[in-house]
Amino acid sequence: MDVRQRLSANLRRLRLEQGWSQEDYADRAGVHRTYVSDIERGSRNPTITVVEKLAAPFALTASDLLA
Question: Which UniProt keywords apply (predicted)?
Fold first, then answer.
């Protein structure tokens, strides 16, 4: 599994565990809902800065989200 696939799977799993819609999560992370959708589908390659923003609502580090 490559890093984009790991990010996609981890992001979706964590978001669903919290019971958040993509829109709820996107608001918490400060990104657009379609961006979250694209990442979860593996069609985006976010920067490390965006990965940090994506990790913050889960109180995780970027490396935790990518593990």
Answer: DNA-binding, Transcription, Transcription regulation
